[in-house]
Structures are given as structure tokens and as C-alpha cells.
Design goal:
Elements (H helix, E strand, L loop, with lengths): L10 H6 L11 H8 L3 H16 L3 E2 L3 E4 L6 E12 L5 E9 L1 H45 L3 H26 L5 E3 H16 L4 E6 L4 E3 H22 L4 E9 L3 E8 L16 H12 L3 E3 L8 E7 L9
Parallel strand pairs: 6-8
Antiparallel strand pairs: 1-3, 2-3, 3-4, 5-7, 8-9, 9-11, 10-11
Helix pairs in contact: 2-3, 4-5, 5-6, 5-7, 6-7, 7-8
């Protein structure tokens, strides 16, 4: 009231502040100082007195503090307004909202999310190790077969496995769960291909930029790169050739280009009905990504350009 005495406490406040009823009629500054010692009590008393004197309301930010009589840290929002009492004098009323339970629940949810992230990273780590093991076994089998055709098929299969394994390695190491830094990943794929395909007369160059891509788009993009580069290796023969992989982006789309300075595309090549498994896989993954693949004409320079949206449309997969 105008004499700064506590004159009324709601039922909800009585539940939150046990034992407050005997304090009715006591000086409110004394009550506050007993319940909350230290700077908080002094600041709160100042806000109450200012609102009583000036009529200016006070709205607090979320406050977390320990009461002298309660062990747990409490969190609450509160507001002070001046009111007119039945006798015509001024008083102040404080509305407060206990946020302790809500904040405890939020902390529990945050911990659950952190635990889920740890679990997902561990899964990615194990998947990566399993895929790398299979790729290694395929490479070993490739080295032990006398057939050049079988050797090539096993090497391609191993490179596909390794391309997917690299995604899971990036996911395990990444800052965001489910997001791959695609530029660095693409360089790793090219490094793996350079080592596994082992062609002394071919130079493989990767020019990339840093861009974050969701995992469900990074995997097919990595496989497309693997297929395009593998096809280039396969068709270059023994001629000294440079294969270039380039990644660029704007705000909404990625552009992936693979080209080489070899003999070009065969005269009987039909982009609409490719015969090789590699191009069939590329076309299938391009449709999955809602992308556009520009293929060179028969007899033209080997330049393939893929443009895909960074994020899928809402109708993708329907």
C-alpha cells in the first residue's frame, strides 16, 4: 500500500511463497530483504518504490535467483503496476510467473537433443568404418584378379563405397548434425579417386568452394561426381589428360562441372539413352535431386554440367 506494507497475497503466490501469510501487514522492503538477500532485493525494492511514486510500470526480464529459504534456483518473469486501492490511495501490485518448471523441462529437452546428436555421430562413425572396410575388401579383390575388366569393375564399386563413407566421416566430424561441408568433401572424393584409379597419365584437379549441404543431397551429389570422374578415367586411355572438377554456387543452386581435355565424346554417344551403368546411375540421381544435367553432344568436348537446388522442393519425393 502507500505505506509500503504487504496487504494482500493471491492464492497462487501463497503456494509459491510458503509461510508468507504471517507476514501480512509487515514492511515489504523487510520481507523482500529476508527472502532475497543481496543486490536482487535492493533492485526489486527500488522498482516497487519507483512504480508507487511515479506510476511507471516495471517489466522484468526473466530472473533467476536463489531465495534464502529455498535450495533450488528459481526462474520467473514479473511485472509491477500502480493501482488505486479502495480507500483512494495508491498501491502497487506485482504479477509474477514461475518459470522454474518450464526451464527445467527445456534443460531436459536440450540434454536429450545433445544425447541424440552424440548417438547420431557415433552411428555415422560406425557406418563410415563399415563402408570403408567393404571398400578396402573390394580393392584387395581387385588387386588379386587377373582380369582387367573385373579389376576395373571392382575398383569402381570400391570408389562408390568410399564416396558414401566420406559423407558419414564428414557427418561425424561436422559441427551440425545432418549437414556436410560439401566443398571439402568433394576434394576428398577426388583424392580417393586419384589414389584408387591410379592412372599415371591423368591429372585430376578439383576446384571447390565452401558450402553446407544436407546429407540426403550430399550423398547423391558425391556419387554423381564419382561416376563422372570414373567415366572420364575410363575413356581417356593412355593419353595424357587433365580432368577438372569444379563446384560453384549461388544463393539457391549448386553447379557441379566435370570436364576433360581428352579425345571428346564418342560419335555414337546418345545422352538420352546411355548404355553404360554409370550414366544411368547419374541420370537417376539427377532426377532424385530435381537437377538438370547438361551433357555434351556426340563427338563434342567432354563437358558435363549439373545444376541442382541446394534444398529440395516441398513436393520432392511425393
Amino acid at each position: 500500500d502507500s505505506a509500503f506494507r504487504l496487504i494482500e497475497v493471491s492464492q497462487g503466490a501463497q503456494a509459491a511463497f510458503e509461510g508468507i501469510t504471517p507476514l501480512m501487514g509487515r514492511d515489504f522492503a523487510e520481507i523482500i530483504s529476508t527472502a532475497w538477500p543481496g543486490p536482487f532485493a535492493t533492485e526489486a525494492i527500488g522498482h516497487f518504490r519507483n512504480t508507487l511514486a511515479t506510476g511507471e510500470p516495471h517489466i522484468s526480464v526473466t530472473t533467476m535467483d536463489a531465495r534464502a529459504s529455498v535450495a533450488d534456483l528459481q526462474a520467473f518473469d514479473w511485472r509491477i503496476d500502480r493501482i488505486v486501492l479502495p480507500d483512494g490511495s495508491y498501491g502497487v501490485v506485482c504479477y509474477f510467473y514461475d518459470l522454474s518448471e518450464r526451464l527445467a523441462l527445456e534443460a531436459s529437452l536440450q540434454q536429450a537433443l545433445a544425447d541424440k546428436d552424440v548417438l547420431l555421430r557415433e552411428i555415422d562413425h560406425r557406418v563410415r568404418n563399415s563402408l570403408s572396410m567393404v571398400a578396402g575388401l573390394l580393392s584387395m579383390q581387385s588387386g588379386s584378379t587377373p582380369s582387367a575388366e573385373v579389376k576395373q569393375a571392382l575398383a569402381v564399386a570400391a570408389s562408390r563405397m568410399q564416396a558414401v563413407a566420406r559423407v558419414h566421416e564428414r557427418l561425424y566430424q561436422g559441427r551440425q548434425v545432418g549437414i556436410v561441408e560439401f566443398g571439402a568433401y568433394l576434394k576428398e572424393v577426388c583424392d580417393d579417386l586419384r589414389g584408387s584409379l591410379q592412372h599415371n597419365s591423368i591429372t585430376l584437379i578439383a576446384r571447390t568452394i565452401s558450402v553446407d549441404v544436407p546429407v540426403d543431397r550430399a550423398i547423391p551429389l558425391g556419387l554423381i561426381t564419382n561416376e563422372l570422374v570414373t567415366n572420364a578415367f575410363k575413356h581417356c586411355g593412355d593419353k595424357s589428360t587433365t580432368i577438372s572438377v569444379e563446384l560453384t554456387t549461388d544463393d539457391t543452386h549448386l553447379t557441379l562441372s566435370v570436364c576433360d581435355d581428352g579425345d571428346g565424346i564418342p560419335a555414337d554417344y546418345d545422352a538420352a539413352a546411355p548404355k553404360g551403368l554409370g550414366m544411368q546411375v547419374i541420370n537417376l540421381l539427377t532426377r532424385q535431386l530435381e537437377g538438370t544435367l547438361t551433357s555434351p553432344p556426340a563427338g563434342g568436348k567432354a563437358v558435363f554440367s549439373l545444376v541442382v537446388p541446394i534444398a529440395p522442393s516441398r513436393t520432392a519425393g511425393n
